[in-house]
Amino acid sequence: MELQIQWLKNIRLLLSICIPVYNQDVGLLVTPLLRQIEDRNNQVEIILIDDGSEKYFKDLNSVFSDRVNYIELDRNIGRSKVRNQFLQHSNSQYLLFIDCDSAIVSKDYISIYVDYIKENKPKVLVGASIYDEEFPGLNFRLRWKYGRKRESQVVEARRMNPSTSFKTNNFLIARENFKEIQFREELDGYGHEDTLFGYDLNINNVDIEHIDNPVLNKKLDTNIEFIHKTEHALQNLLKVWKIVDEDQRILKQIRIIKFYIKLKNSRLFRSLFFILKRPLKSMLKIGWTNLYAFDLYKLGYLIQLSSKRDRD
User: How far apart are CA 21 and CA 60, in angstroms?
Assistant: First the structure.
């Protein structure tokens, strides 16, 4: 019997669906995935790693523990570290990463991935994400518009710039490639772990392929939450710029750095932003969704951060 159990543990699955969880009810995501994999002859598994959520969410999600591989961490370790943890809990050929606040929109979602894997054996494959077409309330409008206009791209556009279009929600990676290139754990909190991971894939010549197999970004941040997360992401972006030793190749992935290089020493721009920062932020908070104004705010905030760090 022990030999049989060990033999079963050593079976290499085709695909592990990897869902890092933090303070989110994943029932609406996991339930359709369970339905889609039930006839897969144990080729596909689901792994949930709870990254130090509140007890309320742990209690909600632990009900799936008899049908998925469910792991709880004692404390929050962050978006990069928790994704790397999935290697320890899976033995599959491919790992598919889905954000916990996503929703499945296609009844063939898993079949599309499995068929593509078997036929093409990709190293990295991106299915991308989309947002609801219906306008949300004004309090959620900034995140919604930014997602639809800047993040959601049709597959043809993504294939033209495969590295630039890389996002960590809804992508799969071959196990052997993920063992070699993992998420950089120097970053903590929210933002730009996908930028750094995409950069590492690019400089190591790992091909990134794209297909039309999106998930829905279901949970929207409020305008205030999104601005706050963006500000933290800009702190991470400065870390990324330092980590890559100001390697110009990363400019393909993130346009704001080009403007940062040009304007970081401009007294005129810093003075202009000093005047505009407060009214810009106030208008964005109440639902003004001019993305060029948002770009200006991000650039000014990034330069302010950089100047503060230089002084410190």
Answer: 12
Tokens of 67: 């049908």
| CATH top-level class of 2-220 | alpha beta
User: Could you tell me the residue ranges of all domains in the chain?
Assistant: 2-220, 228-311
Eight-state DSSP code of residue 253: T
Using CA atoms, how far apart are residues 94 and 212, in angstroms rounded to an integer? Answer: 18
Rounded-to-integer distance, Cα 243 and Cα 266, Å: 24
Tell me the per-residue pLDDT of 270-309, one tens digit each, with 9 for 90 and over.
999 999 999 999 999 999 999 999 999 999 999 999 987 7
Residues in Cβ contact with 295 at an 8 Å cutoff, skipping those fewer than 6 apart: 256
CA–CA separation, 123 and 178 (whole Å): 9
Average pLDDT over residues 209-229: 96
pLDDT for the residue 5:
38
Calpha distance 209→201 (Å, rounded) = 12
Quick: pLDDT tens for 90-114.
999 999 999 999 999 999 999 999 9
CA distance 280 to 311: 25
pLDDT, position 248: 87
Average pLDDT, the chain: 92
What is the DSSP code (8-state) at residue 244? T
Cβ atoms 202, 249 nearer than 8 A: yes
Pick from 122, 129, 107: nearest CA to 39: 107
Alpha carbon 232 to its chain centroid, in Å, reads 15
Q: What is the per-residue DSSP string for 160-224?
A: HSTTTT--SSSEEEEHHHHHHS---TT--SSS-HHHHHHHHHHHTT--EEE-S--EEE-PPPPHH
Q: Would you give the distance in Å from CA 249 to the centre of its chain?
A: 21
Question: Which of 106, 108, 298, 100 shows the shortest CA–CA distance to 116?
Answer: 108
The 10 Å Cβ neighbour count of residue 267 is: 7
